[in-house]
Every structure is written in structure tokens, then in C-alpha cells.
Specification:
globular, 2 domains, eight-stranded mixed beta sheet, 2-enoyl-CoA Hydratase, Chain A, domain 1, 15 helices, alpha/beta
């Protein structure tokens, strides 16, 4: 059963009618296939029209959809023999960031990413994907481990942002994020990042200062959430829609600005409607990027990565 967003109400009504007709047909042996077929065509046309003109705020809602595939779904679908690695060897374990070794299409890789959780229990367990300093220090440890064994690194970004609590600040949240970005920029093995949902603030870029940064079509990536931006600029979260427009947080905008390297198309209606198809598209993009990046030597790879980020923004400024 699909959970519909506010702007999908007309689609929900049509699909509800289709479900009712199918139930009627099953219970009364009534042949209404033609009517169902007409409604299906109408629903698909409406879905296509709606998703062809999503506003930045609507894309933000799609990126946050509870049924959208999360990190653990990608690991289960794409990574064989996944072995999770825990702890930062300094303070403790942070379940907001999951990482470990596995095999991706025959290639040994290090996988790291934020896990938001799929229900209330798992969301609390993973702190809604908002990492504390120990999470980012764990990510640093795993990236350095991958470098030691010359393994490509794949990161999946899906977070509203780093955890803003007092305890995280007391343990050096800003330093941990900055150091994680530094490690991303200095590892000598290929690093590919995919924004699969929300890419929020430093909590996202701590895992996304990569050789290749991809975004799913309806993912978002910004310096702050629309609500956070609105609360600063207008002293109210009610202007979140306007903030989303101003932030240029969509994949299309960020590709034009040169912030990301590619957009991965989603199935019609978003990744949550056809998760397997969406994850295959992500896997194809990752495989292609790793194959291309493995041709580079370590120092040359690092130099190109750093140059990419130093030059970032020139498209928009020019």
C-alpha cells in the first residue's frame, strides 16, 4: 500500500477507485476490466504529469517519504557478504552511521552511509539518521581502512543533518565533520557518493566530498533544511516552501551549478513506488563510476578530487 503525499491526493483518489473496482470484481464475479484499465491509464497519466512539474518543496517531501529505500535496503539489495564494522575506537558506536565491508558486483568495497530507520523503533535506534561525532569518526576510520586495502568507498547520504544536541557539541561535532571531509578529500582510493534521500548540511557533505557525487532524481541536497532556513530568515517555519525555492536544493539545480556529477532517474512516482528498479539504477551508476575511477593513480585521483571541489561554484558564478 502506497503512502500518498499531500499533493498526490488526486492520484490517491483514482487508485482508490481502482482498488474498489477490483475488490468488487473479485467478490461478485463482475467483469469490469475495461473500466479498471481506463482508470489505470488516467492514474498513470496524472502521476506522470504531477511528477514532471514537482516544486522544490514537493521534491523535499518525496525525498523524505517513509517508504523510500534507505541505506539498509541498498545494502541488502546490492552488497553481498556485508560485514558491519562498529565503533570509532575513541568513544563509542553511533548507529546513525552504518558501515562495513562487502562485495558489490564482484568488487570488494567499503560501504558507509546514514540510516534513518523504517519504523519508530528503528528510527529511534538509528537516531533518525542524525550522527554524532563518534559516527563521523567511525566513518573516518572505515575510509582509512579502505585506503589501506585499496578498496573503493561507496557512501549513501540520507540525513536531515548532523545531530544538534549539547552532548554532540561537547564531543566536538564540528571538528568531527570537518575531519571527515578532510579524509574524504585525501583518501587515495575511488570514492563514490549517492544522495538517496535528504542531503542535509555538513552531516551530508561529511560523506559526500567524493570523486563522483550522484543524486537520485527526487533527492534534495542543501546547506540547511527548508524549515531551518525559514526559521532563520522569516522567524517562522511556515515559509518552508519559499525557502526550498531559494535554496536550489534539487538535483536539476545542483547539476547545473556543478555541485553534483550526475542525476540518477527514478521510477515514475518516485523510488518508493518501485524500490528494486531505483536501486538497480543506483547500482549501475556506482559500477560505472568505480570502473572509470580505478584507472587513475592514487595521487592523481586525490588531486582531481580536490580540484573539483576548489573549482565548485564557478558554473553558477560565471
Amino acid at each position: 500500500m502506497v503512502n500518498f503525499l499531500d499533493f498526490e491526493k488526486p492520484i490517491a483518489e483514482l487508485e482508490g477507485k481502482i482498488a474498489d473496482l477490483r475488490h468488487l470484481s473479485d467478490s461478485d464475479q463482475v467483469n469490469i476490466a475495461d473500466e479498471v484499465s481506463k482508470l489505470q491509464v488516467k492514474a498513470e497519466r496524472l502521476l506522470k504529469t504531477t511528477y514532471a512539474k514537482l516544486t522544490p518543496w514537493q521534491k523535499t517531501q518525496v525525498a523524505r517519504h517513509p517508504d523510500r529505500p534507505h541505506l539498509l535496503d541498498y545494502i541488502k539489495a546490492l552488497i553481498e557478504d556485508f560485514t558491519p564494522l562498529a565503533g570509532d575506537r575513541l568513544f563509542g558506536e553511533d548507529r546513525a552511521i552504518v558501515g562495513g565491508l562487502g562485495r558489490f558486483r564482484g568488487q570488494s568495497v567499503m560501504v558507509i552511509g546514514q540510516e534513518k530507520g523504517a519504523d519508530m523503533q528503528s528510527r529511534v535506534k538509528h537516531n533518525f539518521g542524525m550522527a554524532k561525532p563518534e559516527g563521523y569518526r567511525k566513518a573516518q576510520r572505515l575510509m582509512k581502512l579502505a585506503e589501506r586495502f585499496r578498496l573503493p568507498i561507496v557512501t549513501f547520504v540520507d540525513t536531515a543533518g548532523a545531530y544538534p544536541g549539547v552532548d554532540a557539541e561537547a564531543r566536538g561535532q564540528a571538528e568531527a565533520i570537518a575531519r571527515s571531509i578532510e579524509v574524504c578529500l585525501s583518501v587515495t582510493t575511488p570514492l563514490v557518493a549517492v544522495v538517496i534521500g535528504e542531503g542535509g548540511s555538513g552531516g551530508a557533505i561529511a560523506l559526500a566530498a567524493a570523486d563522483r557525487v550522484f543524486m537520485l532524481e527526487h533527492a534534495v541536497y542543501s546547506v540547511i533544511s527548508p524549515e531551518g532556513c525559514a526559521s532563520i530568515l522569516w522567524r517562522s517555519g511556515e515559509q518552508a516552501k519559499e525557502a526550498a525555492e531559494a535554496l536550489r536544493l534539487t538535483a536539476e539545480d545542483l547539476l547545473k551549478l556543478g555541485v553534483i556529477d550526475g542525476v540518477i532517474q527514478e521510477p515514475l512516482g518516485g523510488a518508493h513506488r518501485a524500490p528494486d528498479e531505483a536501486m538497480r539504477a543506483v547500482a549501475n551508476a556506482i559500477e560505472s563510476a568505480i570502473r572509470e575511477l580505478k584507472r587513475e593513480e592514487g595521487p592523481a585521483l586525490v588531486a582531481a578530487r580536490r580540484e573539483k571541489f576548489l573549482a565548485m561554484g564557478q558554473k553558477g558564478l560565471g
